[in-house]
Amino acid sequence: MSDNKQPEQNQDLSGAPSPEELEAAQAANEADELGAAQAELAVLQAKNSELADNFLRAKAEAENARRRADDEIAKARKFAVESFAESLLPVTDSLEAGLLQPDATAAQIREGTEATLKQLKSALERNKVIEINPVAGTRFDPHQHQAISMVPAEQEANTVVGVLQKGYLIADRVLRPALVTVAAPK
Q1: Which of 138, 177, 173 is nearest to 158 (CA)?
Q2: pLDDT tens digits, residue range 165-186?
Q3: How far apart are CA 151 and CA 144, in angstroms?
Q4: CA 23, CA 11: separation in Å to the nearest integer?
Protein backbone atom coordinates (compact mmCIF):
# COMPACT_ATOMS: atom_id res chain seq x y z
CA MET A 1 0.00 0.00 0.00
CA SER A 2 1.18 3.34 -0.67
CA ASP A 3 1.02 6.33 1.60
CA ASN A 4 -0.73 8.28 -1.09
CA LYS A 5 -4.33 8.40 -0.20
CA GLN A 6 -6.78 9.15 -2.88
CA PRO A 7 -9.25 11.92 -2.08
CA GLU A 8 -12.80 10.71 -1.84
CA GLN A 9 -14.79 11.52 -4.87
CA ASN A 10 -17.66 13.23 -2.97
CA GLN A 11 -15.49 15.60 -1.09
CA ASP A 12 -14.44 18.87 -2.66
CA LEU A 13 -11.05 19.89 -1.59
CA SER A 14 -11.61 23.58 -2.36
CA GLY A 15 -13.92 24.03 0.69
CA ALA A 16 -16.95 25.02 -1.42
CA PRO A 17 -20.28 23.51 -0.35
CA SER A 18 -21.54 20.58 -2.29
CA PRO A 19 -24.59 20.83 -4.57
CA GLU A 20 -26.65 18.99 -1.98
CA GLU A 21 -25.65 21.53 0.67
CA LEU A 22 -26.46 24.40 -1.73
CA GLU A 23 -29.83 22.86 -2.48
CA ALA A 24 -30.58 22.39 1.22
CA ALA A 25 -29.52 25.98 1.99
CA GLN A 26 -31.65 27.29 -0.86
CA ALA A 27 -34.66 25.24 0.35
CA ALA A 28 -34.18 26.58 3.90
CA ASN A 29 -33.94 30.15 2.54
CA GLU A 30 -37.11 29.65 0.49
CA ALA A 31 -38.86 28.22 3.53
CA ASP A 32 -37.85 31.30 5.56
CA GLU A 33 -39.10 33.60 2.78
CA LEU A 34 -42.35 31.64 2.53
CA GLY A 35 -42.84 31.88 6.29
CA ALA A 36 -42.18 35.64 6.23
CA ALA A 37 -44.57 36.10 3.27
CA GLN A 38 -47.27 34.08 5.06
CA ALA A 39 -46.82 36.16 8.21
CA GLU A 40 -47.02 39.38 6.18
CA LEU A 41 -50.13 38.03 4.40
CA ALA A 42 -51.79 37.30 7.75
CA VAL A 43 -51.01 40.85 8.97
CA LEU A 44 -52.37 42.36 5.74
CA GLN A 45 -55.51 40.20 5.90
CA ALA A 46 -56.13 41.36 9.48
CA LYS A 47 -55.59 44.99 8.45
CA ASN A 48 -57.91 44.51 5.46
CA SER A 49 -60.59 43.05 7.71
CA GLU A 50 -60.21 45.97 10.13
CA LEU A 51 -60.42 48.53 7.31
CA ALA A 52 -63.47 46.81 5.81
CA ASP A 53 -65.16 46.90 9.23
CA ASN A 54 -64.27 50.60 9.65
CA PHE A 55 -65.62 51.34 6.16
CA LEU A 56 -68.92 49.60 6.89
CA ARG A 57 -69.27 51.48 10.19
CA ALA A 58 -68.50 54.82 8.50
CA LYS A 59 -70.96 54.05 5.72
CA ALA A 60 -73.68 53.19 8.24
CA GLU A 61 -72.91 56.35 10.22
CA ALA A 62 -73.14 58.49 7.06
CA GLU A 63 -76.43 56.85 6.12
CA ASN A 64 -77.81 57.48 9.61
CA ALA A 65 -76.70 61.13 9.48
CA ARG A 66 -78.32 61.55 6.06
CA ARG A 67 -81.54 59.96 7.31
CA ARG A 68 -81.57 62.22 10.40
CA ALA A 69 -80.97 65.29 8.21
CA ASP A 70 -83.79 64.26 5.87
CA ASP A 71 -86.11 63.84 8.88
CA GLU A 72 -85.14 67.29 10.21
CA ILE A 73 -85.75 68.87 6.81
CA ALA A 74 -89.14 67.17 6.53
CA LYS A 75 -90.09 68.39 10.01
CA ALA A 76 -88.87 71.91 9.23
CA ARG A 77 -90.99 72.00 6.08
CA LYS A 78 -94.01 70.56 7.84
CA PHE A 79 -93.86 72.97 10.75
CA ALA A 80 -92.31 76.01 9.03
CA VAL A 81 -95.50 78.03 9.35
CA GLU A 82 -96.14 76.97 12.94
CA SER A 83 -94.51 80.04 14.48
CA PHE A 84 -96.20 82.32 11.96
CA ALA A 85 -99.60 80.72 12.60
CA GLU A 86 -99.14 81.06 16.38
CA SER A 87 -98.44 84.77 15.99
CA LEU A 88 -101.65 85.21 13.96
CA LEU A 89 -103.91 83.51 16.51
CA PRO A 90 -104.30 86.66 18.68
CA VAL A 91 -105.32 88.58 15.54
CA THR A 92 -108.02 85.97 14.86
CA ASP A 93 -109.15 86.15 18.48
CA SER A 94 -109.45 89.95 18.26
CA LEU A 95 -111.45 89.81 15.03
CA GLU A 96 -113.81 87.21 16.47
CA ALA A 97 -114.25 89.24 19.68
CA GLY A 98 -115.09 92.32 17.59
CA LEU A 99 -117.75 90.40 15.69
CA LEU A 100 -119.37 89.32 18.96
CA GLN A 101 -120.17 92.95 19.85
CA PRO A 102 -123.61 93.51 18.27
CA ASP A 103 -124.14 97.01 19.65
CA ALA A 104 -120.68 98.44 18.95
CA THR A 105 -120.52 102.00 17.73
CA ALA A 106 -118.57 103.03 14.65
CA ALA A 107 -115.91 104.56 16.90
CA GLN A 108 -115.57 101.31 18.87
CA ILE A 109 -115.37 99.27 15.68
CA ARG A 110 -112.69 101.61 14.32
CA GLU A 111 -110.73 101.45 17.59
CA GLY A 112 -110.93 97.64 17.62
CA THR A 113 -109.91 97.44 13.96
CA GLU A 114 -106.89 99.68 14.56
CA ALA A 115 -105.82 97.57 17.56
CA THR A 116 -106.22 94.38 15.49
CA LEU A 117 -104.23 95.88 12.60
CA LYS A 118 -101.46 96.77 15.06
CA GLN A 119 -101.44 93.15 16.30
CA LEU A 120 -101.27 91.90 12.71
CA LYS A 121 -98.37 94.20 11.78
CA SER A 122 -96.52 93.14 14.94
CA ALA A 123 -97.04 89.45 14.08
CA LEU A 124 -95.72 90.04 10.55
CA GLU A 125 -92.64 91.89 11.82
CA ARG A 126 -91.85 89.11 14.34
CA ASN A 127 -91.84 86.71 11.41
CA LYS A 128 -89.59 88.98 9.31
CA VAL A 129 -92.33 90.13 6.94
CA ILE A 130 -91.37 93.77 6.38
CA GLU A 131 -93.49 96.39 4.68
CA ILE A 132 -92.29 98.12 1.49
CA ASN A 133 -93.93 101.54 1.51
CA PRO A 134 -91.66 104.05 -0.27
CA VAL A 135 -92.23 107.75 0.40
CA ALA A 136 -92.74 110.17 -2.46
CA GLY A 137 -89.46 111.15 -4.06
CA THR A 138 -87.74 107.81 -3.32
CA ARG A 139 -85.71 106.52 -6.26
CA PHE A 140 -87.64 103.78 -8.15
CA ASP A 141 -86.16 100.35 -7.36
CA PRO A 142 -87.30 97.64 -9.82
CA HIS A 143 -86.30 94.97 -7.29
CA GLN A 144 -88.83 96.21 -4.73
CA HIS A 145 -91.28 98.33 -6.72
CA GLN A 146 -93.56 97.66 -9.65
CA ALA A 147 -94.40 100.73 -11.71
CA ILE A 148 -98.06 100.88 -12.67
CA SER A 149 -97.83 104.13 -14.57
CA MET A 150 -95.64 107.13 -15.24
CA VAL A 151 -97.19 110.49 -14.41
CA PRO A 152 -95.99 114.05 -14.91
CA ALA A 153 -94.79 115.40 -11.57
CA GLU A 154 -92.77 118.26 -10.13
CA GLN A 155 -90.01 115.94 -8.95
CA GLU A 156 -87.03 114.11 -10.37
CA ALA A 157 -87.77 111.54 -13.09
CA ASN A 158 -87.87 107.83 -12.11
CA THR A 159 -88.84 108.57 -8.52
CA VAL A 160 -91.91 107.32 -6.70
CA VAL A 161 -94.88 109.72 -6.85
CA GLY A 162 -97.38 107.58 -4.95
CA VAL A 163 -97.97 104.08 -3.58
CA LEU A 164 -101.08 102.27 -4.80
CA GLN A 165 -100.41 99.09 -2.81
CA LYS A 166 -97.73 98.34 -0.23
CA GLY A 167 -95.24 95.60 -0.94
CA TYR A 168 -93.63 93.15 1.49
CA LEU A 169 -90.26 91.53 2.04
CA ILE A 170 -89.76 88.28 3.86
CA ALA A 171 -86.21 87.78 5.13
CA ASP A 172 -84.80 90.22 2.51
CA ARG A 173 -86.68 88.51 -0.32
CA VAL A 174 -89.50 90.32 -2.11
CA LEU A 175 -92.78 88.64 -1.27
CA ARG A 176 -94.77 91.24 -3.20
CA PRO A 177 -93.42 94.42 -4.82
CA ALA A 178 -95.02 97.75 -3.96
CA LEU A 179 -97.27 99.03 -6.73
CA VAL A 180 -96.23 102.62 -7.42
CA THR A 181 -96.65 105.48 -9.82
CA VAL A 182 -93.40 106.94 -11.09
CA ALA A 183 -92.49 110.48 -12.19
CA ALA A 184 -92.17 110.72 -15.95
CA PRO A 185 -89.16 112.39 -17.56
CA LYS A 186 -89.74 116.05 -18.45
Answers
A1: 138
A2: 999 999 889 999 999 999 999 8
A3: 19
A4: 16
